[in-house]
Design goal:
The complex is a heterodimer of chains A (about 160) and B (about 290). Helices cover about 35% and strands about 20% of the residues of chain A. Chain A has about 160 residues and is an alpha+beta fold. Chain A has one domain: 2-Layer Sandwich (Heat Shock Protein 90). The N and C termini of chain A lie far apart (about 40 Å). Chain B is α/β, with parallel strands linked by helices. Chain B has two domains: about 160 residues, Globin-like (Orthogonal Bundle), CATH 1.10.490; about 110 residues, 2-Layer Sandwich (Transcription Regulator spoIIAA). Helices cover about 65% and strands about 10% of the residues of chain B. Chain B contains ten helices and five strands; from the N terminus they run H-H-H-H-H-H-E-E-H-E-H-E-H-E-H. Chain B has a five-stranded mixed sheet, sandwiched between helices. In chain B, helix 9 links the parallel strand 4 and strand 5. The longest helix of chain B is centred in the middle third of the chain and has 44 residues. The chains are: A alpha+beta (about 160), B alpha/beta (about 290). At the A-B interface, helix 2, helix 3 and helix 5 of A face helix 6, helix 8 and helix 9 of B. Chain B: Keywords: Phosphoprotein. Chain B: This is STAS domain-containing protein. Chain B: Pfam families: RsbRD_N, STAS. Chain B: InterPro entries: Bact_StressResp_Reg (IPR051932), RsbRD_N_dom (IPR025751), STAS_dom (IPR002645), STAS_dom_sf (IPR036513). Chain A: InterPro entries: Anti-sigma-factor_SerPK, HATPase_C_sf, HATPase_dom.
Chain lengths: ~160, ~290
């Protein structure tokens, strides 16, 4: 169902300060992905999180789009799951945003094939997983037939 | 059913039949008093509700149905509670106020029973019975209330979906659909239906789909856009996608989606210029935009 309110203006006009030394990063938060509307909530939450971390507009769009792809995969192929947002720091103190997308679905049988552009087991375009990998800095998948799928992606804030 | 429960049922039935008026008064009074109804449901309406509820409650009490199923399985009674909650949901009362209003009936009923007997045993048995009877009604009203609200939300989003996809005529034989929000399967369906119909009605040659108001273009949205473009082309018209912002363009490219077969423009103005070129007509200032 189409719901309005996923505002682009809010993020574009956002002048919120990036996380500074004295501001503690928000606690990790987990969102369910059980319905089509949940995808909207996830995009909303991720958009807010990218603004919180201090990403620019292009990176905001990248991360939200990657989140949208992965959450949709969990919803369509995994029969629903969860998205967890974390605010990590790398050893050099660089801030980032990490998404952990988990489902208890049938798992990915051939991961290499799934990462290939144009490969799809459903009716999609087959760019979701590979596209998400290109949109993010770090990308790991833990999956196996019957084991469900966990995708962990991270985008770091450029210095 | 134990003999004491049978006695309680009989007592309540009699109270409702003989003192119905009084109980209704008290109930309405309680609801007004508790200021539970921050709505425009008036006293007359509350009386009507009470009358309908009591009328259905009597056969419910007289039936042999176990107490915790009386409300849900007595036909008229179930409807009366559902109707009451629906009206409150529509009038904007809170769910708490709605179930509390139903539960306030306990007090009104007990008061009436108290007029008939002072026997502690009997009063206690009546109170326990009424609790079991009406807690179910309270829960049912809460549930119905939530369903009522969800129904309203569903209807509103349906309305929003249709309102937010207007097809506007920008130029002779040029139509535009400014998309706002997200583009999922249901939305695509509505957009496509409206757009294709408008193309036929206006004998349009170019349709512009503007995605300025679409915050996220992922592969699913891109796929829906391509479907729309294909459908427009099948009608013999051309389709231009406008409002491709820099951040969206980068993201689409990185995702690996190939939109090169589709005419895209950054702004609606550029798209209109392109459309006018396509239909081979003079521009708004009379300048020839087709470069012949």
């Amino acid at each position: 169902m189409a719901l309005p309110g996923e505002s682009i203006l809010a993020s574009r006009g956002a002048k919120r300060p990036a996380l500074t030394e004295d501001r503690r990063p928000p606690a990790p938060a987990t969102y369910p992905v059980r319905t089509e509307e949940d995808l909207l909530s996830v995009r909303h939450a991720v958009r807010a999180a990218t603004v919180e971390v201090g990403f620019g507009l292009v990176d905001q769009t990248r991360v939200v789009t990657a989140a949208s792809e992965l959450a949709r995969n969990a919803f369509v192929h995994g029969g629903g799951g969860t998205v967890t947002l974390e605010y990590p720091r790398d050893p050099r103190g660089r801030r980032g945003l990490r998404l952990i997308v988990k489902d208890e679905g049938p798992g990915i049988v051939d991961l290499d094939a799934a990462l290939t552009d144009g490969f799809t087991t459903g009716a999609g375009l087959g760019h979701g997983l590979g596209g998400a990998r290109r949109l993010m800095d770090e990308f790991t998948v833990r999956t196996g037939p019957g084991e469900g799928t966990v995708v962990v992606v991270t985008r770091w804030l450029a210095w | 059913m134990s003999t004491s429960e049978a006695a309680v049922r009989e007592r309540l039935t009699r109270a409702l039949q003989e003192r119905g008026e009084e109980i209704a008064d008290r109930w309405v009074e309680l609801q007004m008093e508790q200021a539970l109804l921050d709505t425009d449901i008036g006293e007359a309406e509350l009386r009507e509700e009470a009358d309908a509820l009591f009328e259905a409650l009597v056969p419910g009490l007289q039936s042999g149905v176990p107490v915790d199923r009386v409300v849900t399985s007595t036909p008229g009674l179930h409807e009366a509670v559902v109707g009451l909650s629906m009206r409150r949901a529509r009038a904007g009362a809170t769910p708490t106020a709605t179930s509390l209003a139903v539960l306030a009936l306990k007090e009104a009923l007990l008061k009436a029973v108290q007029r008939d007997t002072r026997d502690a045993e009997e009063l206690f048995a009546s109170a326990v019975f009424m609790n079991r009877l009406l807690d179910v009604a309270g829960a049912l009203s809460f549930e119905t209330y939530v369903e009522g609200r969800e129904e309203i939300i569903r209807r509103q989003s349906q309305q929003l979906m249709e309102q937010s996809t207007p097809v506007v005529r920008l130029w002779r034989q040029v139509l535009a659909v400014p998309l706002i929000g997200t583009l999922d399967t249901a939305r695509t369906q509505v957009v496509m239906e409206n757009l294709l119909q408008a193309i036929q009605d206006h004998e349009a040659l170019v349709a512009i789909v503007d995605i300025t108001g679409v915050p996220t273009v992922d592969t699913a949205v891109a796929q829906h856009l391509m479907q729309t473009v294909n459908a427009v082309r099948l009608m013999g018209a051309d389709c231009v996608i406008s409002g491709v912002r820099p951040s969206i363009a980068q993201t689409i490219a990185q995702l690996g989606i190939d939109l090169s077969t589709i005419l895209t423009r950054g702004t609606l103005a550029d798209a209109l210029a392109a459309a006018i070129k396509l239909i081979d007509g003079p521009g708004p200032d009379g300048d020839e935009g087709d470069g012949r």
